[in-house]
User: What shape does this take?
Amino acid sequence: MAPPKLSEDAEKTETPESESERAATEAATTAVGESVEKVDGWGLVTGKARYTDDIPTADALEGRLLRSPHAHARVRSVDTRAAEALDGVEAVLTHEDVPAERFTRTGFPYPAPAPFDERVLNEQVRYVGEPVAAVAARSVDAAERALEAIEVDYEVLECVVDPEEAMAPDAPTLHPEPYENPQENAAPERNVVCETRHEEGDIEAGFERADAVVEGEYESQIVQQLPMETNTTIAWLDDRERLVLRTTTQVSHICRDKIARAFDLDRTDVKVVKPRVGGGFGVRQDTVPNQFICAALALATGRKVRLKNSRKEDLHVSQTRHAQAVSIKTGVREDGTITAMHVDITSNTGAYGCHALAVLSNAAHEPMSVYPTENRLFTGRAVYTNITPGGAMRGYGAVQGTFGVESHMDEIADAIGMDPVKLRRRNVIQEGEESFEPPDSESKPELESVGVSECLDRACAAVGWADGPDRPDGDRYERGYGVALAMAKSGVPNSEYSRCSITLEDDGTLTVRIGVGDTGQGSETVMGQIAASVFGLDIGSVHVKADDTDATPWDNGAYASSTTYISGNATEKAARDLAGKVRELAAEWHGTDPGAIELVDGQVAFPDGTSTSLESFAAEAFEGVRGPKRRLIGTGEHFTALSPKPFAAQLAEVEVDTETGEFDVLRLVNAVDCGQALNPANVRGQIVGGAVMGLGQTLSETLPFGEDGTPEIRGLRDYEVIHAPDLPEIETEIVETYEPTGPYGAKSVGEVSVLGPSPAVANAVDDAVGVRITELPITDAKIRDGLEGGE
Amino acid sequence: MSRKERSTDAVHLQINGEGERLDIEPGETLMSALRRAGHYSVKNGCDEGVCGACNVILGEEGLTRSCLVPAVSCDGGEVMTVEGLLGDDGELHPLQEEFLDRGAAQCGYCIPGVLLSGYDLLRRNENPTEEAVADALSGNICRCTGYVQQIEAIRAAAERLHDSEPTDRGGR
Amino acid sequence: MPSQLPVEYREVESVERAVELLASGPETQIVAGGYSLVPLLKDGVETPDRLVDIGGIDALRGISRRDGATSVGALTTHARIASAPPVREHARALAEATDSVGDYQAKHQGTIGGNLVFADPKYDAPAAVLALDGTVVTQGPDGQRRIDAEEWFRGPDETAVGPDELLTELVVPDTARSGYVRKSAYSGYAVVSVAAALETDGDRVESARVAVNGAKPYPVRLPGVEGTLVGGSLDDDLRARAAEAALSDVDPESLLADDAARGAHRLRLVRSYCREALERASAVTHVH
Assistant: This one.
């Protein structure tokens, strides 16, 4: 069912009334714009916060999964008799015991832009670690003995791990059975999930007009979201036989929907609880095997089942960032104007096609948007291979694409002998211009707040780019500076839907019900700030309820940086709707006009100069002294074709040892435009956190797979994530533009800063020693190679 | 009870100053036993001694990864979890306040372990440099914050503790 | 095994008792800090039926001097070794190696004994021990053995410790000039690490021991480097030539390989870190 199309009125418009509303409340705003403490903060620092597994589970069965040791195999048979006979074992499930209908785990509202190519348990397994059987037992011991007792007869099939090889005619076919919901130009017989082409203008004519044509290829590696809490689900049937999942999710409503569909349950018989969750970064956007299988075990046993992935399991089988090969060809004039740009991407989507098309598409459209040009072409394809499926990871393709485009911009600058900052200024997007959106997106691409140029100014000023930044003398060590521009989004146009309901309690406090998927980024706090600000209340007067699908209206959840913009707008509308009702009722009581009543500082203020506290007002309304008993509720919904873009300019300073190729990132400057910063400390945290995650992709993280598809990593000790002593100096500059369609002028900020570090560092290394690394991660070995190659 | 003759069913510990009897399962780690007993602030982030989410202060051993410690070895010992930072009247420790003030906790999963690393640092170094704080956190993985605000919060807490009047609560 | 750790767990207060338990009864392994062993137990790589915890044997902790050598108890932590004046003065490479441990908690709770028994190519101490001509002392049912470092590191994941033996002590003879350096991984471990120990008369190199960990799965000496150094005059040119001679008879493709470095890259790393280790050793001028 497609989300409802709302009238134009549903979007934010500037009416005289709302202007004065905003003026009035802005004067009194105590919450928005301040770095208020997170609403759940006390629990976080005292250790009292309850994450998914932080409840008594003595009454729960322990779930365990038997995982395929083969990258590609058909399960001929599974003998579970011995396992089932073991003492303490309550259920052993194979593909024969779970629904056979196929679906996609991809976390968008149904149907989602991904092929329905997987089942709860598959008969054909396509990556090492794919679940083959599931056990629920009364103890860990029994569960593990049961796993050992299951006998699987595999027909081992040929596997393929490289996307180019996978598309070759002699490659094994991962998905031979036709499936529903195939994506654009799907050719699964060649392991192609989707193939896309998007042209604007005339690309060949554009190249003809160019004075120079520059080509480059850029590759990025597989990394993983690595939230500190592993994928965990506790599932049970409640006292009304409803299936309840307490699970690590960022999309509770979508999760509920998918579980209900998969098991053919009424939606009303499924409830998803999202407790405090230890990070998401996109891995929780999907409904993952851990969730489907735990639900299956709960349904099969009728008991509570706990299934928590170990860190090693998650490292091996949890979603990853798609490895991509990005080829770019650009035509440019002598004066630096880009006349044509062709970006071609091959994306390795792994065993299943979740997010294959959407990540592929985003990888080109976002970075290409930064430089509007009349003639541009994007071609790409996503390919099945026998490794862990790619999924959604912060940046969502734009990390790989930005590494390509922003490295490429410096190569263009080099080719025509122009300063790379000047080249960017020549071509960068301006206010009023349009972003490059996928052809079917139905978006309104014209951008109203575009702070990227100011971001670039600030980043350059931080290192003194214009006058020539510091380059200490010395033979052996060279200093270099590199810049990158980045653009993200505030939700997927015409796809995000959020509804918020706010109750004015009879003591003047507010309960905000909205299904946001806060996994640490602070969305509940931001929603609370928005609601509080409309009334001039303190954040402490607001309770945000977001963790239970029974209690909240629909929200797509946290992905595509949608929460502040989409859910925030819904919250602001709900608060203003409620404010309107307060004014109406107050006006009725006082025989005056609602428009003449102001809500300020938690007070209801009348034209005659008197006022009453919101608390008193609410109490009186509830008592019913002046009419029927009332407890006022406001609602608001938001659904839009707009997706205002946050921007960033990120600048890296590196020092390279010309003898060894070793290098240090000394400094990373991040100038970010996310509209108005509703919670500056929170915003800064998002910027820094994203930048450090981006640095990890740039310098050290990688998930290697063997030729036979086996994950080579032993555990977290082998995954090179950035630690505190590794940090460069990190500077953040919040460039505040005002996004007129955003709640209190805000855009989103969750992803933009993860995009720039890799090209910024690559550009800085090139600036320092004339070596361009086009394959991530950037290592001293590669630099050394480059140095020696040049000699 | 002599050290050699330990019960394998339970250990008796002082946890944040309170005596407690923890039932333990065979071959269980301290992290697992604490969590089963409801001490949920001790978190399982990796179960291989790398991420610091399971940190506790274990008696004289000091800052310890509880996932590397056999529960059975702890009998008679003292354990401090992050709950032990709270004052007698439930007041937050300056470390906790600074983390709250400065947005240093995002998802919060690493925070109990990080706070204990910070606490351990401030016990031995009243006035740590940024480098010393980063070194003290080298055994903690945080995927959300990028560590910067955490380092700032710990230094701010150090300054406050440094400047504050001596109180009856020794050792804090 | 179903439970994470062996069900049977004993604490001992003497080396003798530890050896008794090792030599009899169910398959037994020694645990101290747990940093090396416990993850291997959980992964099912090591599967003893019993753990013997030697953490209570205070006699195994500490650093002492005797007969021109420094003795380090097996339970001594990296942090303690790194800051101990006798080690800094007489076995500098070992102080620098233990100081390099990247994870604060591993540095303060991990032990030298654990490092030597598990001898992972990513550990710091092994190269220093080999370069300093350390002797590993073990206690077993047949008594005490003293094993030269070269004999100790036998092969990939293989040391000379007997199945019923306990590593009790590391003895390092005094070296006037030594140094250690490593290439760090973000995880806090070493990618490659090199230690150099030199005996000099003025600037003339009388003897040299140079060892690398992370090139092969076990630490090895670099005879090409040593041969170039001996008899020469210690200057930049000598150090450069000596470093270039590292592993010259080894096929780079046979070296350890991972995403940090492989093949020719790893070889180059060894050589440049070798040179730096030699520089560090040379810089020690306070000679007894």
Q: What stands out?
A: The first helix of chain A runs from residue 16 to 28. The CA atoms of residues 35 and 681 of chain A lie 5 Å apart. Chain A touches chain B through 59 residues (CB under 8 Å). Chain A has three domains: 17-30+493-638, 61-157+231-308, 323-435+449-490+644-790.
